[in-house]
């Protein structure tokens, strides 16, 4: 009688649905960004060779091309790491090439190039004949360098417990968060426009505005002086503020921390909540920045203003992520509510400054779009305060992590950073 050896089948690793959805989102984002890049490339070349359009649109169109490729590259690590997780492999040495690239292009090194980029961009914009060639790359550096540096300032000393989590948070901020925000903001815009039209129709001044808009639809456009006059009307300003400082801040501040919502059921530390919020907000800010590229006169101001807007998005989203994890740990609902209301108010104030500054610039000078100095100073003050807030919260969380022994000093990772926790 022979002995029978029964072999136990190896344990199967359960299918990791979060990685699957991240791969799908990442690939969808890459397709969209590369589509935008291709359209920008074709449009830019058409603008160069077409005598009807001239070359003034080429720098902006080529900037969309560079931006689309750049955002696609940022999504690749989350896709690769997600595929490795689905195939049962660990993430160690998963991205050797990208690891070397990102170490070489460290934000604390590249940020010193920012003043040079701004100076070269100011000079190149004075020569429209060549700005189509140089401005796309200058726009990429001018918009990406502040975001990467602020992210480094915000999470240095502690980082999400895995590369996969870090890149996935950034990827969510580049894909599903903005997509949901876009849909809801479009719906909000429709509601505001409908309500605004109903309100305007009920007042004599409003009927005059509607008549002007109706006439412009017949004649093919509104003269610049009429646009300036419209934007100075209190009713029009009220409609703009209802959307830009009302609906937009609420929708964005609720949905930007999408990485925190996705990982809500995980065992997150306060440092995780802050870092995931920064990454998610940073992804959203980058997408918004590349959707608002500028060339020509006023480029320097717009690029600097986008750096401030990046700080706004990252600080607010990081703060919300931090307080929501705090609420889960302490069983207290008040901190995240206060943080969310605070973030909405700060965002609303920022947007209101842009609205009033634009209106005032149209009112004070017909030949220039320059903002009055007082509004510029207000935006500079808010930007510095937000950047300082990112630095100070990072210092506080770093000290608390070191005192509690949460992070391993040798690896700069949480003590429980085993694969099953990723």
Structural class: mainly alpha
Intertermini distance: 49 Å
Oligomer: single chain
Please tell me the total number of domains.
Answer: 1
- The beta-strand count equals 2
Strand order of the largest sheet: 1-2
Low-confidence stretches: 1-8, 408-422
What value does the Rg take, in angstroms? 24 Å
Secondary-structure element pattern, one letter each: HHHHHHHHHHHHHHHHEE
- How would you sum up the major sheet? 2 strands, antiparallel
Strand-residue fraction?
under 5%
Please tell me the overall pLDDT: 85
Please count the helical segments. 16
Helix content: over 70%
Basic shape = globular
Please render the helix and strand layout as text.
Blueprint: H1 17-49, H2 58-86, H3 96-104, H4 107-110, H5 114-124, H6 128-155, H7 163-174, H8 176-201, H9 204-219, H10 224-230, H11 234-255, H12 258-262, H13 270-290, H14 299-330, H15 334-364, H16 373-404, E1 407-408, E2 413-414
Helix pairs in contact: 1-2, 1-7, 2-6, 2-7, 5-6, 6-13, 6-14, 6-16, 7-13, 8-9, 8-11, 11-15, 13-14, 14-15, 14-16, 15-16
């Amino acid at each position: 009688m022979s002995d029978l050896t029964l072999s136990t089948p190896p344990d199967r690793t359960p299918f990791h649905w979060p990685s699957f959805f991240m791969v799908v989102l990442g690939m969808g984002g890459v397709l969209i960004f590369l589509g935008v890049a291709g359209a920008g490339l074709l449009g830019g070349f058409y603008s160069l060779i077409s005598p009807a359009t001239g070359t003034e649109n080429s720098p902006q169109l080529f900037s969309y091309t560079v931006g689309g490729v750049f955002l696609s590259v940022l999504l690749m690590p989350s896709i690769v790491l997600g595929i490795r997780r689905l195939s049962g492999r660990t993430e160690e040495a998963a991205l050797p090439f990208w690891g070397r690239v990102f170490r070489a292009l460290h934000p604390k090194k590249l940020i010193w190039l920012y003043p040079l980029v701004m100076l070269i961009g100011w000079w190149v914009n004075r020569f429209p004949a060549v700005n189509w060639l140089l401005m796309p790359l200058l726009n990429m550096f001018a918009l990406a360098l502040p975001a990467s540096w602020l992210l480094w300032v915000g999470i240095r000393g502690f980082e999400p417990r895995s590369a996969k989590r870090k890149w996935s948070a950034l990827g969510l901020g580049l894909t599903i968060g903005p997509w949901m925000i876009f849909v809801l903001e479009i719906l909000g815009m429709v509601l505001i426009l409908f309500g605004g039209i109903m309100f305007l129709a009920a007042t004599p001044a409003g009927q005059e505005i509607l008549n002007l808009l109706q006439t412009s639809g017949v004649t093919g456009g509104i003269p610049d002086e009429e646009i300036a006059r419209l934007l100075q009307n209190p009713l029009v300003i009220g409609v703009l503020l209802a959307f830009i400082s009302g609906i937009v801040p609420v929708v964005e501040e609720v949905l930007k921390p999408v990485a925190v919502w996705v990982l809500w059921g995980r065992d997150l530390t306060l440092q995780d909540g802050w870092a995931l919020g920064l990454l998610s907000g940073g992804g959203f800010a980058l997408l918004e920045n590349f959707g608002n590229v500028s060339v020509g006169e006023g480029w320097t101001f717009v690029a600097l203003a986008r750096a401030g807007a990046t700080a706004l998005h990252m600080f607010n989203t990081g703060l919300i992520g931090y307080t929501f994890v705090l609420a889960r740990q302490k069983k207290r609902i008040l901190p995240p509510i206060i943080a969310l209301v605070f973030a909405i108010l700060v965002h609303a104030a920022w947007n209101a400054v842009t609205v009033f500054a634009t209106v005032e610039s149209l009112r004070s000078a017909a030949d220039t779009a320059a903002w009055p100095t007082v509004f510029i100073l207000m935006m500079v003050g808010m930007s510095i305060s937000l950047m300082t807030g990112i630095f100070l919260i990072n210092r506080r969380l770093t000290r608390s992590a070191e005192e509690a022994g949460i992070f391993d000093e040798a690896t700069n990772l949480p003590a429980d950073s085993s694969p099953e926790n990723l």
